[in-house]
């Protein structure tokens, strides 16, 4: 941009557009006006961004029209657009109305509200809470004012790279949500097919948690659980059920007595939808030893707030089971890995492991893949039996190898 072409604000500009009309439109930003084309200027934002603008009177009202980012649109292009818009206003055409009519797609924040209204009803409360955070802290601040067809791969990639610097996992989840929003925009006819800018962007590598309890650690854990069973039967029972079923944390801690029928456990609100758990003898015996509270439907009831039992069991696992035995930190979710790893070492096939763990996609269980093919109920019995033996300090004989498990 030529410094001679754009000196500080001139009398010509301020005379044509009084300061009282301009100030609400530019506020604290600085604008450098063109001497030869009144109303045409370059706006310097506080953030450092520069945009071409033009002011013109439309039906007697001073209106500001953005002509583009100065880093993308050249001075000559912006000047040509400004001249055309000023000419349209002089012949009593409304260039803003024409622009709005030409823009058929909604802004992101408008579509986001529609998407939430139509799709959030399918989510669980915890999912809604998490997705609300991604929407309010990432998606709306970044894309809210853009029209859907303005959000291309370059724009999304710039945001994804910046977000990855602070939270790689969060960036992956937010990108997945954004991609789904674009897929629904295509399905609902808001955008044409193949408008999704997200598939070409590669997700950040996921951290793989391969930690699980060894035979020696299981023996120490079992001895500790035996000692604490009289004083904390609910906590001990919850840990044993994690080990014997491979269920997720909330699937066990939100279990009701009415969900247990015979040797089956029915989960109606599982992460992957309703499913049935095959209870091995060890799991059934654990449930029989758990005291029932009269009038309370929960197998593991909370004594305080709604999630009290969850935090209580987590603290019990960390401070009273792992720490005294010198076992490195291990999440409750890693107990699922212990169950799955023993299933794999016993040569259960991937579909069987997927069913035992409640994976909706078989590929989620592929890291435990070995050969073999047993019905799920038999597999649950075998794996739970081995884990029960390990907790009791007995050797674990693997049927397919005839040797105890060592790490």
UniProtKB/TrEMBL annotation:
Tell me the GO molecular function terms.
Answer: DNA binding
Tell me the ranges covered by the Tyr recombinase domain, including all copies.
208-382
Q: Which GO terms describe its biological process?
A: DNA integration; DNA recombination
UniProt keyword terms in alphabetical order:
DNA integration, DNA recombination, DNA-binding
Which InterPro entries does the record cross-reference, listed alphabetically?
A: DNA_brk_join_enz (IPR011010), Integrase-like_cat_sf (IPR013762), Integrase_catalytic (IPR002104), Integrase_DNA-bd_sf (IPR038488), Integrase_DNA_bind_dom (IPR025166), Integrase_recombinase_N (IPR010998), Phage_Integrase (IPR050808)
Which Pfam families does the record associate with it?
Arm-DNA-bind_3 (PF13356), Phage_integrase (PF00589)
Which superkingdom, per the lineage?
Bacteria
> Which residues belong to the signal peptide in this entry?
none
> What family does the database annotate?
Belongs to the 'phage' integrase family.
Name the chain's protein: Tyrosine-type recombinase/integrase
Species source reads Sandarakinorhabdus fusca
**UniProt lineage:** Bacteria, Pseudomonadati, Pseudomonadota, Alphaproteobacteria, Sphingomonadales
């Amino acid at each position: 941009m030529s410094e001679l072409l754009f000196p500080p604000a001139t009398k010509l500009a301020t005379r044509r557009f009084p300061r009282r009309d301009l100030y609400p439109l530019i506020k604290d930003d600085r604008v450098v006006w063109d001497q030869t084309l009144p109303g045409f200027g370059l706006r310097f934002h506080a953030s450092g961004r520069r945009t071409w603008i033009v002011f013109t009177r439309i039906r007697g009202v001073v209106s500001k029209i953005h002509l583009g980012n100065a880093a993308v649109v050249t001075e000559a292009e912006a000047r040509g657009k400004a001249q055309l818009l000023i000419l349209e206003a002089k012949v009593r055409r409304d260039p803003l109305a024409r622009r709005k009519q030409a823009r058929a797609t909604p802004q992101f924040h408008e579509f986001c509200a529609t998407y939430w209204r139509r799709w959030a009803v399918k989510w669980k409360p915890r999912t809604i809470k998490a997705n609300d955070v991604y929407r309010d802290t990432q998606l709306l601040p970044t894309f809210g004012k853009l029209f859907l067809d303005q959000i291309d791969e370059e724009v999304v990639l710039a945001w994804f790279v910046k977000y990855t610097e602070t939270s790689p996992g969060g960036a992956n989840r937010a990108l997945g949500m954004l991609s789904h929003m674009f897929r629904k925009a295509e399905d609902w006819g808001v955008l044409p097919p193949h408008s999704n800018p997200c598939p070409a962007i590669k997700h950040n590598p996921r951290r793989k948690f391969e930690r699980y309890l060894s035979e020696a650690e299981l023996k120490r854990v079992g001895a500790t659980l035996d000692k604490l069973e009289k004083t904390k039967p609910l906590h001990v029972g919850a840990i044993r059920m994690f080990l014997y079923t491979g269920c997720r944390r909330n699937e066990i801690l939100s279990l009701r007595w009415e969900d247990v029928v015979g040797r089956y456990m029915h989960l109606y609100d599982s992460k992957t939808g309703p499913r049935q758990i095959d209870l091995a003898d060890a799991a059934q015996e654990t449930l029989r030893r758990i005291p029932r509270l009269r009038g309370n439907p929960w197998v593991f009831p909370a004594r305080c707030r709604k999630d009290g039992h969850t935090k209580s069991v987590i603290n019990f696992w960390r401070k009273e089971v792992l720490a005294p035995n010198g076992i490195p930190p291990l999440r409750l979710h890693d107990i699922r890995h212990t169950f799955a790893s023993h299933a794999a070492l016993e040569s259960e096939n991937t579909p069987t492991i997927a069913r035992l763990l409640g994976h909706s996609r078989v590929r989620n269980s592929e890291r435990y893949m070995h050969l073999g093919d047993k019905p799920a109920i038999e597999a649950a019995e075998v794996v739970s039996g081995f884990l029960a033996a390990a907790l009791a300090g007995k050797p674990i004989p693997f049927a397919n190898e005839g040797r105890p498990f060592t790490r």
